[in-house]
Write a structure and sequence with these properties.
By secondary structure, the protein is largely without helices or strands. Helix content is 9%, strand content 11%. A two-stranded antiparallel sheet has the order 1-2.
Amino acid sequence: MFTQYKSWRPYISPFDPCKPIRVKYFATPPQLYMGFQPYGLPQFETPKEALRAGTLWPQLSSPYPFPIKGGTKHD
């Protein structure tokens, strides 16, 4: 299943002084999944919307923080 959010499990040392984060997550940008940018993609209606999204095209914008409450997820 396609998802922009990936996870990885870092090495956890037995000597770490803090409680370990067992699974870490990161987001990948949507353009990684497009082979090329199609001609005629619709653009945002106003420059303010485009500036807020960081791109001219809605298909290339992404809500990068992890969508689970709190922004991160720990096991």
